[in-house]
Amino acid sequence: MLHAGLEQYVLVSALLFALGFFGVLLRKNTLVIYMCLELMLVASTLALVAFSRFNGTMDGNVFVFFILTIAAAEVAVGLAIIVALFRQRHTVQVEELNHLKN
Asked: CATH assignment of 6-97?
């Protein structure tokens, strides 16, 4: 049975974060951008858990608990904002949402 080391966890975390980062930069749909932001959040929690496991402490796990609690509130608020913008503008494309006056 193969055991993954800290380097493998950090590499996967960095790849997930990079994927989310470039998704935020390159995508035009607000829902996809929001999912990429969540992917970046998951990548950071993966790194925290990996460091916590390999250091033999629970500090990273405690941070992850708080991050996931805040992420749940973020999902509720973020999706509410996206739904409100969709109801007002009838689109979720970023180019058409850049004028927030009217």
From this structure: 1.10.287.3510
